[in-house]
Amino acid sequence: MIRIATRRSPLARWQANHVAALLRAREPGLEVRLHEVVTKGDKILEVPLAKVGGKGLFVKEIEDALLAGDAEIAVHSMKDLPALLAEGLAVGAVPEREDPRDALCSHGATLDRLKKGARVGTSSLRRAAQIKALRPDLHLETIRGNVETRLRKIDQGLDAVVLAYAGLRRLGLAERATQIFEPGEMLPAVAQGALAIEARASDAATMGRLAPLEHAVTRQRVEAERGLLRRLEGGCQVPIAAHAVVEGGRIALSALVASLDGKRLVRGERNGPAAEAAAIGEALGEELLGKGAAEILRECVGLHPGLPAP
After folding, report:
1. Which residues lie below 8 Å from residue 6, measured CB to CB, with a gap of 6+?
2. Residue 51 and residue 104: Cα distance in Å, rounded?
């Protein structure tokens, strides 16, 4: 039997059941149970995530369950996973990535056709900063809750919301997307659309069971993006974005750090052998810090004291 620690949201359960299906496909008859956990990020819904502060808001309690032996594996959205894992845990497999792009959901309008001063909801400082850079006239509002809750905001007064396209696709809601942003328009979050299957590093049997679920190219892409994040020492609630592409054994990484008002965007690109993905990410992070990202990140910390300093 395999127990999977997961959050309780519909998307988190979908992701856990997806991994369960991958395991059963290799071991027909395998018993898999979900061990549902409520995280700090799930409990605090009335406060913007950036003001809550800290890393691993959707992860720590799940990792505690793993370390306590309440589950054999945990399934996370990779973008929620801190750059440094809890001691004793390891990512046993990274399955093939879903579409990492962001999507605008509205009553039919694309971003450029929203009325002047339209109200747009997002839970992400990264998305908000890039939207402000594209449409400084729009009014950004912070929204929390699961995918369905955020979509309902459109019927409750908002003109649009911006969500991860991967979540819409996984929940069968892809048709709700009015516009899908290409990375050149809006860079996605680090590792958006990728899953992390975490286990105790000492549990050789479980690590061996997870190994066949690994998708090598996805691992390389997220290692580059997370390498950047690690060098910038930022969490998912800092305006940091990255997107890596692997082709012909080489990786190309694009990234940015944005000011909260969207007026300053520090961008950079770097490429090299895919086998050196993490190092390429860290090198690009160093480059961005030298180009002005360090100052932007310090300002973010000043506005949101719970965030880590660069």
Report:
1. 12, 13, 15, 16, 34, 35, 36, 37, 62, 74, 75
2. 24
- 102 classed as catalytic: no
Domains of the chain: 1-95+194-214 (3.40.190.10), 102-180 (3.40.190.10), 215-310 (3.30.160.40)
- pLDDT value at 74 more than 50: yes
- Per-residue tokens: 285: 């992070």
- Whether the per-residue pLDDT at 305 is higher than 50: the answer is no
Q: Which residue has the higher pLDDT, 57 or 303?
A: 57
Q: What is the C-alpha to C-alpha distance for residues 276 and 263, in angstroms, rounded to an integer?
A: 33
Which one of 80, 102, 159, 203 is the catalytic residue? 80
Please give the Cα distance from 71 to 69 (Å, whole number): 5
**Residue with the larger pLDDT of the pair 191 and 50:** 191
